[in-house]
Every structure is written in C-alpha cells, then in structure tokens.
Design brief:
This protein is α/β, with parallel strands linked by helices and 603 residues long. It is 35% helix and 24% strand.
Amino acid sequence: MCGIVGYIGEREKREFLLDGLRELEYRGYDSAGIAVLHQGEINYFKASGKLDNLIEKTKDFRSINFGLGIAHTRWATHGKPTEINAHPHWGEFSFLIHNGIIENYMEIKKELQSDGVVFLSQTDSEVIVHLFEKFVRLNFTPKDAFKKTIESLKGAFAVLLISKVSPETIFFAKNAVPLIIGKNSQNEIFFGSSDAPLIGFADEVSYLEDGSFGWASKEEIEIFKDDTKIVPIFKLLNSSKIYAQKDGFRFFMEKEIYEQSTVTSETLMGRIKDDKVYLEELSGYDFSDIDEIKICACGTSYHAALTSSYLFERISKIRCSVEIASEFRYKEPLMDKKTLFLVISQSGETADTLQALKMAKKAGLKTLCICNVDNSSIVRISDATILTRAGIEKGVASTKAFATQVLTLWLLSLYVAKKRDKLDKKMCETEMKALRSIPSVLKVDEEIHEKLHRLSKRYLHGHGFFFIGRDIFFPLALEGALKLKEISYLHAEGYPAGEMKHGPIALADSTLFTIALMPQTMLYDKTKSNVEELSARDATILAISPKEFTLADDFIKTQSYEHPMSEFFEMMVITQLLALEISIRLGNDVDMPRNLAKSVTVE
C-alpha cells in the first residue's frame, strides 16, 4: 500500500522526506517521488523502481531554511508503475500526493478535459490537483478551493497538497485511508501514513478521523469535519519503529488479518456502480468465443481458484476447471483456443504459474491474470490483468492476498455472467448487496479473537487437524489447514466434509481435532451429519457456525448472513486467527515460518 510523508519546518526537507520513505518501504511500492516548496518555487523528483533511484536523482538538491515537503511511495492501482504515473502529480502551480482510490475520477476527468485540462498520467490521483486549481481559477480562496475539491471526491483517500498560491501551507484530507499528523516543540509539523516516519521527530501525533480535512502551517493546524471545526486529540508517539510499522500488532500477519476490511474496500473501489461490475482492465476483452475457463495457480492462490470455480459455474454458467500449476506443466495438457486461461499469483513471479502461462500463450489461448504486483513477470506476459490491490504482505503465510484474490474472482464471475447474458436482475441485486457488505464482514470481532486466544491452548498437541466444509467451504477448509501448517508446524488437512466416511474417518479419536465449517446458507444439514459422524468416534470438534451445535467441544458463533460468501469471509478470518493464536502459543515466528519463502521463484 502506498506511503505518505509530509513536513513543514526549517530542517533539510530532502533528507527528512527520503528517510521517511525509507521507513515506509515495508508497505511495498513500485515508484517514489518528492516535491519541495521553498522560497516560492516547487522542485520535484520522481523515479520508478527502488527508492535508491530517487535518492540518486536528488543527491544534489538542497532546501535549507523554511519550506514545505511532501513525499510518496506508490503501489500501482491505476496506470503502470512508470515515472510519469509516480507521485507527486502537478498542475500549473500545485503538487499533490494521494493514497487510496478515487471512485468517481472518470467523471471528474471528463469534466476537466472538457475545460481543456491535459492529463499527463494514467492515474486517478491526478484529477485532484487539477480540480483544486480549477476552483482557484474560479476565484475561490485556496482553503475554500481545497474544501470544494474534497467534497467532490468519492472513494478512499489520504491527500497532501502544496501550492504556490499558499506557500506556507500543506492541505490535507483523510477518508478510509490512514493519515497521521504530528508536531513537536520546535513548531515543526509532520505527516505520515503510519507512525514509523515520524518517530524521532514528532513528540505527539493525532490520528485523523475519516471525513476530516484541513490545512497546516507553522502557525496553526485547522481540521474540519462536516463543516465543523474540530479540536484534534494528540497523543505521545511510541518510540519503537518496528512497533509503529506493525501499528501496535504483535506480528505483521496479525496486522494484515485486521487490514483485510480496508484492502477489500480498495479491491472493490470503482468496480461496483449502479448494480454493475466495472472492470476497466477488460474493456474490449471479447468473451463471445470463450466456452471454458481454466485456472492455474499454486498454494493459497490455488485455493482461491478452487473457490472461484464454484462461482464461475454457478453465476457465469461457464465450465471451469482448476489446475495446480506445478502439475499442469508436465501432464501434456490439451488446450483449446475457446478456453480462457486464467492464472493467479500474489507476487506475479511464481515460477510454475509463470511457465504454465507461457505454455498457454504459445498454444494461442486468451490469457488473463489476477495479481497483486503490477509490472511483474506474469502481468507483463498476460493479455490482461486485474490487480487485487492488497498492498504488500510481509507475513509469509498469506491472508489479505487470499481475501482480495477471492473477492476479485467473485467480481470477475459477475462480470463474465453479465457479458454472457446469464445474470438476471434479482441475482444481480443479491450479489451486489453481498459484495458491498464484505469489508464490514471482514472487520475483526475482538470478542471472537479473544475467545480464539483462550481456546488455542487446547489445540497445541494431538495427532492432527481436519478442516472440513462443503461447496465453497471446502477450498476454505484447505486454506485454513494450510495456514495452520505453515505457521504452527502441526499436521493439518482440508477435506470435503462428505469425504470423511471414504477413509479419513479412520483417524478419528479424541486427539484428532476437527475444525468444522458449518454455514447456515449452504448444505448445513449435510455438513452437520458429517460432523456428527466424527463426534460419534470421539473426535474433538471445534464448530464454526451461526447455529448452535450441541455436540461441539468448542463453538465459535458467527453472524447470520443471507449470502454464503459473507459466511465464507467471516469464517476465513476465524481460521486465520486460530492459526495465528496457536502458533504464538507454540512460540513460533509467525511472520517468517521455517523453510518458507514469500515468492516461490524456482520449481
């Protein structure tokens, strides 16, 4: 996820801004830039790739005495990770950096283009600076122009803007994306998208509320919300940089589980409107000659693929098969040109998946990838790409990458259904309602987390775990078992609940732990019967369900939802937290489990 740094004061701006960006590298980025307003002039520098490229470009730049500075690391969502798409973006007399996604940027862009504005980048962010300058030209004061600009935006954003028309002020706004303002006894003002860049500089910080905006200078900080001036609450800043990077969580994996609500909002941003799915990435993509989808992936991405296979057949009414990429490569597969070949990879560099994609390209198939990293190898080779917008994931065991992959695939299944004229109005309304609810479904219930923490001490031994479920909850069972294996080093397997009696039930005894996914919206009675068979053989049962299950040794009660995917995502969070808490009790390094790497770039 993108990073923001800002500064008002006397110290050397370049050094502070670049050091701040260095502290945000853990968030992931593909380009970076800075802009400094000093003595009435704005100097800016941008570079794609690593921060070292930007440092090299700015090595001879100095800005002593009073001035303003803004800096940004970008994780591409709109437009390729090129220097022109890097932040800051500029107009005639203003510069801007932005985290998040502007949902209505196309409407604003068309309006500005009709006024003669020429856009340089492919980003959604650039509309903000041009809109601000439009209002300035209409004789609004800079403060009123910024207020009107922010009121015009829909979406998620953290914004810093500097302008020659107000050379001692940084304008800022925050909605659904983190933004922090800090200060110290030397009358310096600091901004950051996390605490880390501010440690050692700011004495105290204020975590801005959603919907707030304002302006800061060395004389004052003014913050408004809903046209009302508010008094910010400043708190002492924690002195640990690692703690700050983790936002107070014990591990990056825990932080990333909690981030899923936010990142899925970004996955959906701009892609749902008026009960339709909009995937700009696929504009002009012809589905008329496609009669099958074949998906190739590895590990967690394979589980996301399996989940989507149910959705493509159920919603899109198109045949869908899923292959493990490492096996697909060597089976001498038959490939038909009426097949859409879809690959999924968090990093875009997964070796087996990349080779499978090359095979499909060579065979003349139409290709598409679901990926989190723009300009990665898989993205460059695919005919089209849908980015998941998960931001960087520090924990090796994937959490938010899986959530955003599944959500993106669900969007795609609806998009394909519409293109194939298979989506009636009632189903469309039902699916859209459920899609919009997912970010709130993914908000971690603190009481459930605490209960899982307490329960975890009972699941440290035994001879293994079964995670069981039916339909889309079978791939979720596979993923839940994988999470536990990866970070606890305990043996776990995911199974279709109906397969228990076909062999695996022979393992059932009191030291076999069964994690039963029992949604009320999908095959509840069938799953309940399978769990009862395990209980009758003295297996220890942890049931996860909105319905009370009296035979369970432990029970996690979930919310009642109307849509299976809502239950899917809530149960996903619970299985992630269970694995986390068991691993912590065992004393393992949750973020860096043994023998594993984040991106598997060799066979």
